[in-house]
Amino acid sequence: MSASKAAPVRDRLRIAIQKNGRLAEPARNLLAACGLSWRESRDKLFCYGESLPVDLLLVRDDDIPGLIADGVCDLGIVGRNELDEQDAARRQRGLPSAFQALRALGFGQCSLMLAVPEEWEWQGPAQAAGTRIATSYPALLTQWLQQQGVQAEVVELSGSVEIAPRLGTADLICDLVSSGATLRANQLKPVQTVLDSEAVLAGAVLAPDDARAGLLSMLLRRLDGVVQQQDRKLLMFRAEENRVAALAQLLADAEPLVRLPGEGDVLQLQTMCPGPLSWQRMEELERAGAQGLMVLSVERSLA
Ligand code: PRP
Ligand code: ZN
Is residue 276 very low, low, confident or very high in pLDDT (cuts 50, 70, 90)? Predict the structure, then answer.
């Protein structure tokens, strides 16, 4: 086969997501919120897109960057930790970048961290010098050690990293920490962050230039309309005209107040707040003259 074989022209977009695990359900929910629906295959590895020509491939998260690099999938929803690890591994092998994070998705927050036996007193990265560190993230750990100027032995394990110190195969570990329960159960404590991670939408470095291009930009626009709204709240209340200036000051982080006609000198007001509104904040607004406060979630928007 010739080396210059053209990429196959496809008119359906294919997205890889985790089959099981932390990101599986939020990833599907997010895509559903973007208006996608599927007919599941019997083995549930492939979901055929019904509402739009966008299909899902259900795989192990570790396989997602490779599927994008090989052009099997156009997009993937995967942890930044996995994407960066495989990108660093490619670079360390002298390969060019093949995938990139297109959007942060606001869920699946966790950190890649060094963790040591509970009885250790941690004084900083220099303490890792000369130790053996077990991890499933050898490329990211190697890169971090280099940046810190620390020489240590990286012990690559594909799973159950947290038991390595007890087995004596490593002195400490470098693993993902979400709630911290896994570490606690293994008498380890997190001491040093190597990478902060969350779920991202990943895509190829080279975007498709056939029918998939239009689908991709529509999907990204819908995704932004869902993800960027996740924390926003629409705040509605009534207030007397002479209280509005003080209330606007209390809402300095929100969009300018929109005044709607009310009754008499009582106005109906609304604004978009960038994040959740605490009870405390609502009570403060009430004391400043806001009546009938109502906080509404924003489901989606088109920018
Ligand atoms: C990570 C990590 C730990 C666990 C930590 O696995 O390897 O086992 O999560 O979570 P906790 O702090 O809430 O206890 P992950 O879910 O990424 O699965 P995978 O490594 O098999 O892909
Ligand atoms: Zn995994």
Answer: confident
